[in-house]
Amino acid sequence: MAALPRLALLPGEPGGIGPELVVKLAQRALPASLLCFGDPDHLINTALALRLPLSCEPLTAAALDQPLPAHRPGRLTVMPFPHPNLPVAGTACPDNAGSLFNALEAATDACLAGQLDGLITGPLQKASLNADRPFTGLTEWLMQRAGSDDVVMMLANPDLRVALLTTHLPLRNVPDAITGERLHSRLGILHRALRQDFGIASPRIAVLGLNPHAGEDGLLGDEELQVITPALEKLRADGMDLIGPLPADTAFLPQRLHEFDAVFAMYHDQGLPVLKHGGFEQAVNISLGLPFVRVAVDHGTALDRAGQGNADAGSLIAATETAIRMANTRRNAA
Predict the structure, then answer these.
(1) What domains can you pick out in the chain, each with its CATH number?
(2) pLDDT tens readout for residues 166-181
(3) pTM score > 0.90 for this model?
(4) How far apart, in whole angstroms, are the C-alpha atoms of residue 35 and residue 23?
């Protein structure tokens, strides 16, 4: 039998809903070896509060070169990273940032060393992490640590994949960020990932324009004529199947979406509201372009809901199932 994918699981902000989601995920049967990088005492206390069974089996870094046990419901294999301060549900604690960074570094380095196939990450509180060291976001942090030249954010639910050219930019800065070089790099990453991680032999990608009606032949803006269309023509000459630039207001019509394997949007709020409306609970955040699989939940720490026991684990379950499929696809293609 083929070896199960080996995946790191990081609960995220200990005062948020991440630990609760991990405990709920742990109750499920999963075809993978999961290794949680976190505080086992905090996870067990969270399980007790939820009245769910959980045992944590410790693992040392030296054991990463050995076979990992398959995940079993109600049990977690844990590499311990204790929090120096007792987490309080609903309260972010910057003093625990050091243990979170240590866990992130250990999990990422194990992926880079080939000991693990990828990361599944819960929600982080950027303000807390910035109290320890400068931190703009986990995607950027992973790109730097992995030495990757570029990374693409793609959100996905069971019916739709939306990748982004730009992410968290003020809207007034987006046009200047749309360059031929960036389009070439990020569409290339998306195309390769659809083949490598999703097993799509000939990906078909819809590319959105920037302006209303995709510029309407320059009447409503010329970014499509001056930058986007020339870049797409060059990429088509390289063999990519790219449709567009398309008007964003009609590209997401259901009768059109079945024609595409992914939609490539120019900016964050151009594509993501549609995806989240169509299935927020099942949406996941995927980092394309890293040398390992990385899938995250598509929501925040929800401090206001932590400790109540009613957090929906749907996104973490979907992230785990997505990471398993991606890891298996990469292995089969190798």
Answers:
(1) 1-148+293-334 (3.40.718.10), 150-289 (3.40.718.10)
(2) 998 999 999 999 999 9
(3) yes
(4) 13
